[in-house]
């Protein structure tokens, strides 16, 4: 990151964990000198509305008001993705101040998003953890689960992290079976979403039921059920999440199956 110049103009992103600073619901925008940003360091990470988008170096002592990144899910996707990029980069810089190879002090690179060790020259790049998320359809029904972290609340799709030496498709089959004992087939890539909590990348799939009866993994799942597309559904994830998009796409497939 570089020292902010008084004349620098643009959007300014402060982060704390997976929270961001907002002023009256908006990111600070304007000239650095007018916003009192002199003496801070920042990095341009993109553009929004044809204006520079700056990530400000993490502040250890900060009395600004911060709000969960999740509250921005309803914003345009490109904007939300920029926010995710900033949160993930600040998380990366904060957790990689020292070299994982020799323990030396890392420095931020100026030509790319990476850090380099002063002692051995080893470079480290932002850590992105791939995770699958999948909606499963059986005829006119969709499989939804109430996870332990949402116990008694939201029902959503199944998800899990990709393990070393595993394809996305293998992860889908493993996670669905581990959490519900259901077998799936006909996997189709749906889309992806950066998920800065703190550094995941959600890779979405649609899948069809292939066999098995629901047996939940009690450590992870509180409840899992098949729901008819035209019957009342439980509380669903918020709009803007890839989980909600997967559910809506699957419900459309359920209706098409019924109509045919």
UniProtKB/TrEMBL annotation:
Keywords: Hydrolase, Magnesium, Manganese, Metal-binding, NAD, Zinc. A divalent metal cation 3 binds at residues 175, 179, 220. GO terms for biological process: NAD+ catabolic process; NADP+ catabolic process. Zn(2+) binds at residues 99, 102, 117, 120. Divalent metal cations. Mg(2+) or Mn(2+). Binds 1 zinc ion per subunit. A motif (Nudix box) lies at residues 160-181. Its EC number is 3.6.1.-, 3.6.1.22. GO terms for molecular function: magnesium ion binding; manganese ion binding; NAD+ diphosphatase activity; NADH pyrophosphatase activity; RNA NAD-cap (NMN-forming) hydrolase activity; zinc ion binding. InterPro entries: NAD-cap_RNA_hydrolase_NudC (IPR050241), NudC-like_C (IPR049734), NUDIX_hydrolase-like_dom_sf (IPR015797), NUDIX_hydrolase_CS (IPR020084), NUDIX_hydrolase_dom (IPR000086), RNA_Hydrolase_NudC (IPR022925), Znr_NADH_PPase (IPR015376). A divalent metal cation 1 binds at residues 159, 179, 220. The keyword Transit peptide does not apply. A divalent metal cation 2 binds at residue 175. Its cofactor is Mg(2+); Mn(2+); Zn(2+). mRNA decapping enzyme that specifically removes the nicotinamide adenine dinucleotide (NAD) cap from a subset of mRNAs by hydrolyzing the diphosphate linkage to produce nicotinamide mononucleotide (NMN) and 5' monophosphate mRNA. The NAD-cap is present at the 5'-end of some mRNAs and stabilizes RNA against 5'-processing. Has preference for mRNAs with a 5'-end purine. Catalyzes the hydrolysis of a broad range of dinucleotide pyrophosphates. Belongs to the Nudix hydrolase family. NudC subfamily. This is NAD-capped RNA hydrolase NudC. It comes from Aggregatibacter aphrophilus ATCC 33389.
């Amino acid at each position: 990151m570089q020292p902010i110049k008084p004349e620098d103009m643009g959007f300014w992103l402060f982060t704390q964990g997976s929270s961001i600073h907002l002023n009256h619901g908006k990111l600070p925008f304007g000239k650095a000198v007018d916003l009192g940003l002199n003496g801070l360091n920042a990095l341009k990470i993109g553009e929004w509305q044809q204006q520079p988008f700056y990530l400000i170096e993490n502040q250890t002592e900060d009395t600004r008001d911060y709000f969960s990144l999740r509250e921005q899910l309803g914003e345009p996707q490109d904007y939300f993705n920029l926010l995710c990029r900033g949160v993930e980069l600040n998380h990366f810089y904060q957790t990689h101040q020292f070299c994982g190879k020799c323990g030396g002090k890392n420095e931020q690179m100026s030509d790319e998003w990476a850090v380099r060790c002063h002692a051995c020259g080893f470079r480290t790049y932002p850590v992105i953890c791939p995770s699958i998320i999948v909606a499963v359809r059986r005829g006119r029904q969709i499989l939804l689960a109430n996870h332990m972290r949402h116990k008694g609340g939201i029902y959503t799709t199944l998800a899990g992290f990709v393990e070393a030496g595993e394809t996305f498709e293998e992860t889908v089959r493993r996670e669905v079976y581990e959490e519900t004992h259901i077998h799936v087939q006909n996997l189709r890539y749906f889309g992806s979403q950066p998920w800065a909590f703190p550094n995941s990348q959600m890779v979405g799939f649609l899948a069809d039921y292939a066999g098995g009866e629901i047996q939940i993994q009690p450590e992870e799942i509180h409840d899992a059920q098949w729901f008819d597309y035209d019957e009342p559904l439980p509380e669903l994830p918020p709009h803007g999440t890839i989980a909600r998009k997967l559910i809506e796409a699957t419900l459309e497939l359920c209706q098409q199956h019924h109509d045919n």
